[in-house]
Amino acid sequence: MRVRREDADVVLAELLELAPGGVEEADVGGDVVEYAVYGAPGELPDLPAVHAAAGGALVEVVTTEVADDWADRWRQFHRPIAIGDRLYVRPPWEPAHATLLDLVIDPGQAFGTGAHHTTRLCLELLAEREPDGAVMDLGCGSGVLAIAAAKLGWGPVAGVDHELESVRATAENAQANEVEVAASRFDLIRGGPAPTAPLVLANLLRPLLLCVARAGFDGEPPQLLIASGLLSHEADEVAAAFAPHGLQETDRRQSAEWSALALRRPV
């Protein structure tokens, strides 16, 4: 599925409702973003080349048959990444780093392996801060951010996600990394005020971040909120939405067209 870059976040939100296990994103150049969803014969509709609407955006849809060696070839897209001089995020088939903190994420379980711009930006902002108390990961996905926080010395660490598969993946990945993360289901759209902690991690799309800002927090607002999942032109709007909770922007990072914010509540 190919869509104009300006509509990419809307289409991705729609796709994740249909494919909670995640989608593959590719930057094909220009003003276009490509998303791929994989499935066995019979799992996906056998569509000709069509144009469809997703959340009001026009999407070009093409169905192709993947070669029989896909089970080996897909691994080349999941490579280890180093986050500063502290973290090393890798899939299970890659060896550990000699000196960096090792974080193993199975990309076959749920959305979020650490490679996407938004996740990397969150990890960078997290790794630069000294651990200081409890953490809540809103929309934990595969658990990469929560597990990284636990590895870095934060605690206790918890995460919530609307998708049961993500809750399971977070728990399994935490166990594989020998850290404790309390993962549970929570609907950020309909569940009311969001769970909170001194540090809240929120790698979410703009509509969900604005929903959290409107609903507020179930308790004291966080001392620090690291928010990502934002296209760069959306960052100012999201920062302003959290201002009524006493959270002020102290840092902003950008990678490609994506941004992440560090919002802190004055002591």
Q: Which ranges are low-confidence, i.e. pLDDT below 50, for 5 or more consecutive residues?
A: none
In terms of structural class, how would the helical and strand content be classed? alpha/beta
Beta-strand segment tally: 15
Secondary-structure element pattern, one letter each:
EHEEEEHEEEHEHEHEEHEHEE
Q: Which superfamily, in CATH terms, is the homologous superfamily of the largest domain?
A: Vaccinia Virus protein VP39
Percent of residues in helices comes to 10-25%
Distance between the termini: 46 Å
CATH topology of the largest domain: Rossmann fold
Mean pLDDT: 87
Whole-angstrom Rg: 18 Å
Tally of helical runs = 7
Describe this structure as you would to a colleague.
The protein folds into two domains: 2-61, no CATH class; 114-264, Rossmann fold. By secondary structure, it is an alpha/beta fold. The protein is built from seven helices and 15 strands.
Write the layout of secondary structure elements.
Elements: E1 2-4, H1 8-18, E2 24-27, E3 32-36, E4 50-54, E5 57-61, H2 70-73, E6 81-83, E7 87-90, E8 101-104, H3 117-127, E9 135-138, H4 144-152, E10 157-161, H5 164-176, E11 181-185, E12 199-203, H6 206-215, E13 224-231, H7 235-242, E14 248-255, E15 258-264
Parallel strand pairs: 7-8, 9-10, 9-12, 10-11, 12-13
Antiparallel strand pairs: 1-3, 2-3, 4-5, 6-7, 13-15, 14-15
Helix pairs in contact: 3-4
Describe what is shown at a glance.
This protein is of the alpha/beta class and 267 residues long.
Tags for this model:
alpha/beta, 15 strands, 7-stranded mixed β-sheet, 267 residues, globular, Rossmann fold, 3-stranded antiparallel β-sheet, 2 domains, 7 helices
